[in-house]
Amino acid sequence: MFRQVAAYMDNKIERRLDRRGFSLEAVLVFVCGLLGSIGFAYIWMTAADEMGDVGDSLTYEFLASAMAPVLLLFGLWIWYTVGAHLLASHYRGRGPIIRLLRTTAWALIPIGIWYLIRSAVIIALFYTVEIPENPSQEAPGIGASATHDYILGLGLEDPIYVGTLLLGVLFTAWSGYLLSTAVQRSKNIEQDDARKVAGILSGVFALYLVWSALGYAGIA
């Protein structure tokens, strides 16, 4: 099954190499990002239902957390593209950066799948969470940001969510595999060199996930 999916993605990357524009890839990244927004949007709706009047400041905080997965994925797309372009030049890679922009987007599909899993876990965790009517009184800090973080912590500090973040490392490894294919085809470098480039770029994101997991676990 994995080989069939990997072969399909390799063929997709190959077909998109010399196409014009990258609107399809932009839509792909946006949709994958929205899969990560579902869970945080559910927290927002749950909080609004439990609290009644959320207030403008807290609404902004929830909106920001709901849009964060989309912005993060677009940032990762740029990181993959620019980073691969610069690192591949060290191995005498050739080819315009626009080719990388098209192909690296397809390497983000595994992250989109993990986003969907994470959203499902968030919904399951917050389905049983009781949010106080006035959580600002329970929050350790003052202001909408502290209240927002307190509400998120009611569910996201669960070991299941921490484990889901660590699961993301495996999907990042899959993303790195696809990224190596994208770099190899786009920059015409050796497979081993492309794997080194992809390992560095995807490894940084994997470290970010581990750091986030440690933070929710109360270790970092």
TrEMBL record:
InterPro entries: Yip1_dom. The keyword Transmembrane applies. It is a multi-pass membrane protein. Residues 24-213 form the Yip1 domain. It is found in: Membrane. Keywords: Membrane, Transmembrane, Transmembrane helix. The chain crosses the membrane at residues 21-44, 64-88, 100-127, 160-179, 200-219. GO terms for cellular component: membrane. Its main location: membrane. This is YIP1 family protein. It comes from Natronoglomus mannanivorans.
